[in-house]
Amino acid sequence: MKKSRDEKGSPQSDASPEERPPASGAGPIGREIDPRPTLSYYVPSDSSDDAVDEDADSWDDGWLDADGETIDSDPEAGTSARFKPQALENLPLVNHYQLVKFLGSGAMGHVYQAYDQRLKRAVAIKFLHCDEPEREVRFIREARAQARVDHPNVCKVYEIGDWRGRPYIVMQLIRGKSLREKSSDMTLEQILIAVMQAAEGMHEAHRVGLVHRDLKPGNIMIEQGEDGSSHAYVVDFGVARAELEQDLTLIGQVLGTPNYMAPEQARGDRQALDRRTDVYALGATLFRLLTGKPPFGNDSLDSVLAEIITKEPPKPRLLNKNLPVDLETIILKCLHKDPVDRYASSRDLAEDLDRFLNGDPIVAQPMGRLYLLGKWVGKHRLPVGLSLTALVLVSFTMAWGAWQGAVREERARTLTTKVMEIEAMARQTYLSRRHDIRSDLDRLRQQMANLEADIRQYGAKGHGPGYYALGRSALSLGEPRLALDHLETAWVSGYREPRVAYALGLAYCELYRQESGRIQLIEDREERAARMTEVNTQFRTPARKYMSLAKDAPLTHPDYLEALIAYCDGRYEQALALLRVSKAQAAWFYEAHKLEADTYRDWARAVHDEGDTEGARTFFDKALTAYDRAIQIGQSDPEIYRAQMQTLLSLMNMEMFAGTSIEDYGQRCLQLAIEALEVQPRSGQTWLLKAKAYRQMAQRRRVQGEDPLPFLKDAAQAVTLAQECGGPPGPLGLESAGIYRRWAQWLNDRTQSPEDMIRLALAALDGVPPDSRDFEYYHSRGSTYRILAKSLVRRGIPACDDYRYAVESYRRAMDLRPNRVPVLSNLALCLMALSGAPDCSANPIEALSEAASHLERAVALQKDHVVLRYYLGRCYMQLAQDGDPQSGKLHPRFAYKALAQYRDGLARNPKFFNLYNVLGQTHLALARSDWEQANPPGTDFEAAMEAYRAGLILKPQNWRLQLGLAYAHFFRGKYHVRHDRPSAGDFEAALSLIDSVLARVSFGEAHLCRGSVHRLQAERELRQAGNPEPYIRQAAAAFHQVLGANPNHPEAFRSLARLTTLHSASNGLTPAQRRQFLGEARVYLDRALTLHPDGPYFLLAEAQWYLQAELAEYDAPHLPERGLSRIDQVLRAKPCLPEALALETGLTYLLKARETGDPDLLDKARAMSMDLFRGNNTGMAVPSR
C-alpha cells in the first residue's frame, strides 16, 4: 500500500478550543471542504446519549475502554458474582508481577498496571470478573486469539497465568485513551490514519484466521508519541473466534456491540461471519466518528438489531454536510448489507483510505469510469473546457472500457504464465536427485514476491485471480498454510471458480495429512482421538467441502481428486483403488504414492486402535514401501521424508507398548533424517522429528533397565538445532520438556538430584506460546513439577508448593479433558503426597478423599488397568492411616479395601510385581495393628512374607521387594524379642536383604531398617547382660546415613533418640556418663518432635526418655509427671499399646516412690526400665496414680 506520509499522523493543530470550528450533536464540520482535503479541521465530539451504545464510564489511563455494552452469550452474566478490584488492589505481588495501580474494567475483566520483575518492563494485567466456567473459557480464548496476532497495530499478549485460581492475561501496556475518548481532539486525518492502522492490524488477525466481532472506537486505543504523533492498537479480542472454530454460544445468540454489528452478526448467523464482518464494524466506526451518530437508532436493543438487518444506513453527508464524498462512499461500501459488496478485506479498506489521503482515486466508487477520469482531472489540474460535448465523453468512456477489458485479459494471461512457471520449476526441483533445495526455493519465493508486487498494482479488481495465483504458487512450494491464506482471500473476494475450490481443497487436505501424522505420535489413544476430532473439524471437513465443489475443474488427474475425497472420508480401500489408476497414468506423479502411503498409515493406526496389532503392522509396512517409492521419484521433496519419519515414529510407539524391539525402526528413522536434512538442512520440523526418534529410543532403553542418557543427550541437541532453525515453538517446547523430564526421572530413580533437568524442562514449557498451551502442555507441566517434588521430599526438603503447582496444572488439564485417566491418576498421586506432607497445611482426609474419588473414576473408565488398582489401594491405605503412617492408626475397613484392589489387580495380571510389594506392606500394617492392640498378629506376618517372596520370584533383584521383606523379618523379630521368644534368625535375614539392597542403591529407608535391627540387637544384649556397644555403634552409623541423605528425616531423629536413651541404661556407666547420653538423646528428641510433634510413637519415645532421666537423676523438674502426660496422649490414640502401658507402669512407680519414699517402688521402677518392652508380659499391675 502506498504511503505518502507518516503513518502515525500529523501533529494536532495549535488552535485553541475557542478557535476551533463549532461542533453540534449532528456533527457538521464548521467550514467548507476542498475536494482535495487539507485535513486540518476537527471532527465533532460525541454529545449523543445512546441507550445501547456507550457506557459513560472512562478510565484515567484509558488502557481499555467499553464502547457500549458488549452482548454476552450468558443472559445471566450481569447478575453473577463479580471479582472485585479491591480484592487485588492491596496485594503487592501476583506471581512475579508487581501491581502498580488499578486501571479500570472492560467487558470481561479488571485491568491493572503492573511491573514485570523478571523482564523489567511495565505491563497490563487483566483478571477475569467472575468464576463462571464459560466466561473463563472465553477469557482464555481472548488471550489465545490475541496472542496469535503479531502486528504493530494489535496489542500484544505476553502470557496467560493463574493466581490463586483466578486466570489472568499479561498484555502490552498502552499509555493512551480509546479512539472514542480521543476522537474529539483529533483531526480528520488523524482519525482516518488511526482507522487505517487498525484495519492493517485486523488484516493480520484475519490472515491467521481470526475474526474480532467487536470492533468499535472503544476497542481501538490511541497512544500519543513524544513528537505528538499517534499510534493505534486493536484490543479486546474477547469475543473473537477462528473462522472455522465452533462458537461457544448457542445457536441464535449474538456477541458484540449492537451499533457496530454487521447484519449477519445481528441475525446470529455464525456461519456467515468472516473478515468482512470486521470490515462492516470499521465502517460503522468511521460513521460514528465522522457524524457523531451510529448508523442505526438510539432506541432499544431489539429495534437497533432489527434496523441493522432490514434498513439501509443513512448517507453520512445527511448528518455531516461537510464530509467529503469519497469518505461517504468508503463508509457506505463498508456498510453494505451483503458481505460480497463490502471490501473483500480490511487491507482493501486501508488501501482505499490511503488513496483518499493521497488524493488518488478510490476503488469504492460506483461511477467507475467517469469517476476515475474526474479524479484524474482533479488531481493533475488539467484544463478541461466546459464545452466538451456528450459525444466526447461517451467516446472516451467506451474507449476506456475496451482498454480495461484488454488489460484484464492480459493480466490474467500473465498471471497464469507466471504460476505455471513457478509450478514447473518447483516440480523440477523435487524430481531432481537429492540435493540442497534452499537456493531453488529462494528463487521461487522471489518469483512469488514479484508476482505479489504485480498483484498489488492491479488493485482490488485483480485480487481474485491474483491471490489464487499466489495460493497455487505457495502450494507448489510446500507451504499449505500460506497457500490457504491467499486462496481464502481470493474466495472471499468472489473469485469462486472450481479450480479455486480445488486448490483450497488441496491446501486443507495437505494440512489435514500433516496434522494427522503429528497426532499419531501422541502415545495416549484417548488424547489422540480427541485431537483427531479437532483436526477433522478444522481441516478435513472444509477439505471435503471444497473438493466436492471442484469436480468441474479441468484436472490433469481427476482420479487423484476422487482418491483425496475418499481418503478424507476414511474410505481407505476405495482411495487405494483410485490411486492405482492415478499411478498408472503418470509414473512421475509421486504425489499419488505419497497419498497411498498416508492412506495405509492412517488405516494402520485405525485398526491398531481397534486392537488388531498384526493388521496394523501389515498396513504400516505397506505405508513404508509406498513412501520409499515416492522418495525414489521425488528425491528432493522434504515432506515425503518427514511423513515417513512420522510413520516410523508411530510404528515405534506401537511396538514399544507391545514389548517389541524398536532399534531397527529407530535407526531407519535417523537415516531418513540425514537424507531429509541433505535436502533442507535448516528444517526445524526435521530436527524435531529426529529428536523424537532419539527420545523414543531412550525411553525403550529405560524400560529395559539400560542407560538412556546417550540418546537423551542426542535428543536435546536435536531440539536445540530445531530451535535455531526456526522450528515451531509450541511442539518444540513440549518435546524439549519431555526429554528433560525423562532425563530427570532417570536421575531421580537412581536417587540423584534431577533439579537441573527439571529447571530446563520448566524453562522449555515457559517458552510454549500461550495459544499452544493445550492439554498436553498442562499434563507435561504437572508431571514435571511432580518429579521435582518427589526428589525434594526424598532429600527432606519441603515440596508443598511444587506439589500444588502440579495439582493446579493437572486440574487445568482435566478441565480440557475431563475423563483422561493419566491426569486423574497423576492428580490423585499429588494429592496423596500433599496429604502426607507435614508442612503443607492440607487437610489430609479431604485430599485423600478427593484422590480416591479420582482414582475410583479412573478405575471405572479402565477396569482392567492394574496400575490404577495399585494406586487406589495405596490411597485406601493412606486413608486407613489418616494420611500419616506415624499416626499409629489403622482403620481396618480401608485396609481391607486396599487388599481387595491389590488382589483384584493380581487376578488380572499376576506378573505385576509392584502389587506384591504393597500387598506385603498392607499385611504387615495389619499385623502391627493387631500387636499394638495386644492381640496376636495371626497370619499377617506370614502373609506379608509370602507376598514379598512371590514378587521376588518374578523380580529377584528388585530392591523394593527385598527391602519390604527385610522389614517383615525385622518386625517379626521385634515381636519375638518383646515377647521373650527366639527371633528365629529374622534379624540376620533382614540384614542380609539390606546388604543386597545397599549394594545397588543407597536408599534412606534401607539404612533406617539396618539401624533399627541393630538397635533391637543392642536391646537384647542389654537385657541379657551382654555387650550392646558394637550394635549401638552400628545402629548410630546407619541412622546418620539416613540424615546424610535427608537432614530432616523425623524417624531417623526419633530412632537416634531411642538409641541414645537405651545407651544411657548400659551397665558400667557413671552417673555423669548416663546424664551425658540423656542430654544427647534430648537433642535428637527435640528435633524429632519439631518435625513430627503429635505422632504417638514420637511421644512414646519422649515418655521413655523421662523414665530413664528420672532414674539417672537428670537435672529437670517433674519428669514422671511430664512422662505420664505424654503417655496419656499416646493412649488416647492407641489405648492398648503394650509399650505405652509398660511405660505408664514404670512412671507411676517412680511418681509414687518420690511421693512416699518407698525404696521398693523405686526398685520396681528400675526393673521396669530394663523390662518395659515386655509390655503386658511384665506381670506387674499398673498402680493407681
Automatic annotation (TrEMBL):
Residue ranges, compositional bias (Acidic residues): 47-75
InterPro entries: Kinase-like_dom_sf, Prot_kinase_dom, Protein_kinase_ATP_BS, Ser/Thr_kinase_AS, TPR-like_helical_dom_sf
Residues annotated as domain Protein kinase: 97-357
Binding site for ATP: 126
Keyword Coiled coil: yes
UniProt GO MF annotations: ATP binding; protein serine/threonine kinase activity
Region ranges (Disordered): 1-79
Superkingdom assignment: Bacteria
Positions in coiled-coil regions: 434-461
Keyword terms of this UniProt record: ATP-binding, Coiled coil, Kinase, Nucleotide-binding, Transferase
Descriptive protein name: Protein kinase
Species for this entry: Sulfidibacter corallicola
UniProt lineage: Bacteria, Pseudomonadati, Acidobacteriota, Holophagae, Acanthopleuribacterales
